[in-house]
Amino acid sequence: MAYALEDEFGDIIGKARRGHDLSLGQVASSAGITEAQLSQMESYALKPTGAQVHKIAGILNLNGAKLADIAMERWAPEPVTPGYDDALEVVTITALVGGWPVHAYLLVCKATNEAAIIDTAAHPDTVLQKVEETGVNPTIILLTHAHSDHANGLPEIERATGCPTYIHANEPKPQSTQQLRTLKHGDEVAVGKLSVKTLDTPGHTPGGCSFHTRSTVIVGDAIFAGSVGGAKISYTDLLSTVQNYLLSLPDDVKLFPGHGPATTVGEEKTHNPFF
């Protein structure tokens, strides 16, 4: 397959190693390989053997079988097709930021045609063009977190749409034309007839959050297909909140991340080596 995951073996073990605050040398020594070999694996210059995958997985508290499926490119999530929910539509907007694809989303209430703009993919013109193309009526802007690839360009979108912007109370505040409105875990906002609930998913950032309505969650950089976001703040918080607030949802709930393909709760419970 042309492998489409945001994170593959090298990214996954690098994130887990840093999350456990282990050096290359510590993991390499325990795994019976050289530090240079492990560094090459993390940078995709060396493909591991099956035995090495399982050894490294054990050291990093990852699921070996799940990690092996990703390392050997045997798994990718089934595509999430439009029309899975007759009450809403998710429009994915992808732009290159620093050479890497990043997603913004339009969460559309089909009953009213009102929409939430979720993140900006740091390309306000691209987001606004998609709003015009789809003919939706944006009424609110929601930010999963404030990293530049997800929040830059916010002032341009605010000026063009007149929408209020919401962000988690614990998250650093990006540049804005207005006083940002804040959310905490469990808070709900309306998008047309949809009620969108805030779920705490910090760890990648202090106030990272996800937005859940019906069978849909926009998850930002909390979880990717087969991986998680880099735990720049807290590895423990990231894994525990994803486990408690996302992977506890029904298996058919769709997860739309800030990078890489959409997935489902069931796919991640079965295939994500962090859980």
Cα separation of the termini: 24 Å
Q: Which blocks of ≥5 consecutive residues have pLDDT under 50? A: none
Shape: elongated
Give the C-level CATH assignment of the largest domain: Alpha Beta
By CATH, the architecture of the largest domain is named 4-Layer Sandwich
- Secondary-structure class: alpha/beta
Number of H/I helices: 10
Question: Using only CA atoms, what is the Rg?
Answer: 19 Å
DSSP, total strands: 14
Strands of the biggest beta sheet: in what spatial order?
1-2-3-4-5-6
How many separate domains? 2
State the CATH superfamily name of the largest domain.
Ribonuclease Z/Hydroxyacylglutathione hydrolase-like
CATH topology of the largest domain: Metallo-beta-lactamase, Chain A
Report the β-strand fraction as a percent range: 25-35%
Mean pLDDT equals 97
What profile does the largest beta sheet have? Answer: 6 strands, mixed
* SSE pattern: HHHHHEEEHEHHEEEEEEEEHEEH
